[in-house]
Amino acid sequence: MKWARRKTRVRSAGTPVVSTFTVDEALWSDLSILRFSGADREWLQTVVKYRTNQPVEGEYDVLIGPVADDRTIDVINQYITGAYPEDIALRLLLPMRFVDQWALKTDRALSTLIWKEAVSV
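RE: above sequence
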């Protein structure tokens, strides 16, 4: 809800709406999925690649793992600029409470979504 309101406010247009979906994970057996169990070295390197437009090895339909958000971006940016070495960045990220984010990156992955409702917030 916060994100929908924020984006509407920044764009100065539209109405904030949150759509709710479920995922038919039974259809995921044929998908390529990269799942991170936490904010570890592989996760950090992948986030940096996406944030700096570097190629990411492997073509994935779905990425699942901790969301790099406003709380984490300062540490990640400091790591990107070289101000923090990897071990320090990971130590600083360790105590943060993460929420998982699901990124469905292909039409095949999106086809597993089942729309439930849209609510104006």
